[in-house]
Amino acid sequence: MSTLIVSRPAYRSQRAFFVVSALLFAASAAATIVWCASMSAANRMPMPGGWEMSMAWVRMCGQTWTSAAASFIGMWDVMMAAMMLPSLVPMLWRYRRAVAAGCASETRLAPLTALAGIGYFCVWTALGAAVYAAGVALAELEMQAPVAARIVPVSAGAVVLIAGALQFTEWKARHLASCREAPGHGRTLPADAATAWRFGLRLGLHCSYSCAGLTAILLVIGVMDLRAMTMVMAAITVERLAPGGEHVARGIGGVTVAAGLLLIMRIVALG
Questions:
Q1: At 44, which helix (H) or strand (E)?
Q2: DSSP for 45-112?
Q3: Residue 59: left (phi > 0), alpha (psi -120 to 50), or beta?
Q4: Which of 19, 101, 112, 248 could form a disulfide with 188 if both were Cys (CB 3.0 to 4.6 A apart)?
Q5: Which domain holds residue 266?
Q6: Which are the contacts of 82, defined by CB distance < 8 A and separation ≥ 6?
Q7: How many domains does the chain have?
Q8: Residue 54: what are its φ and ψ, rounded to 5°?
């Protein structure tokens, strides 16, 4: 009887963790779909070279740069939540187990797990701010210099090619291994806020580095393209969670290199 009484709160805590994770994913995915639908083809600007620039990088009439940046970063955070949660949730679950192994109470697990998740997404928020600043600068250049705009399609192909090659590097393998590594290496973790925050930040940094190439592909193909988001999310999730993640990453790299070459050849052929 005592075992049942002790295990019941743990079961409720575990169930709540997965229910909340599922709801966060569903909400972020739905918001991302609505955002992408609102930023339709009508919200794209034809550019020299036969391509269209997303208006995400252009300030709307009457909008300040501060509000434009805040709007982009907010949408970026929602999109990253939808893309990263499938691979993040198992790591947060392992973190909970490592903390619980140190006899932490069930009531402390939820706030500590939430803090670790916030730390993780703070890294992606900072990256979103950097991406927006770079995107705005490039958009300004492309609008003012037609020559720069004309080389964008072939440059996008080159980015895809380089991103594919990055999948084969030791740098990628090292950060991917850190993303896949169980918290605590089989040991317990302290049940304190500082450890939770550091864990989230460290995991966020390793995962942002590991995803650098795939994130670059998303940006050049279309940051508001649902198909591109789905493919990148699938690639990130599989290489982090599937057995033999390093081999999976190299397989993804091979496909990406081939896609980059085909894209460049197609652009060159079209002249």
A1: strand 44-47
A2: EEETTTEEEEGGGSPPTT--HHHHHHHHHHHHHHHHHHHHHHHHHHHHHHHHHHHHTTT--HHHHHHH
A3: beta
A4: 101
A5: 2-270
A6: 25, 28, 29, 31, 32, 229, 233
A7: 1
A8: -70, 140
Give the number of other CB atoms < 10 A from CB of residue 165: 16
Q: Which amino acid is at 166?
A: L
- Kindly state the tokens that stand for 10: 């743990």
Alpha carbon distance 122, 256 (integer Å): 28
pTM for the whole structure: 0.89
Q: Per-residue pLDDT for the chain (271 aa), expressed as one digit of tens each?
A: 334 444 566 678 788 899 999 999 999 999 999 888 877 655 677 888 778 888 888 888 888 889 999 999 999 999 999 999 999 999 999 999 888 876 667 778 889 999 999 999 999 999 999 999 999 999 899 888 888 888 888 999 999 999 999 999 999 999 999 998 877 666 778 888 999 999 999 999 999 999 999 999 999 988 778 888 999 999 999 999 999 999 999 999 999 999 999 999 988 887 6
Q: Are 66 and 155 in contact (CB under 8 A)?
A: no
H helix count then E strand count, the chain? 10, 2
Smallest CA-to-CA distance from 239 within 255, 225, 219 is with 255
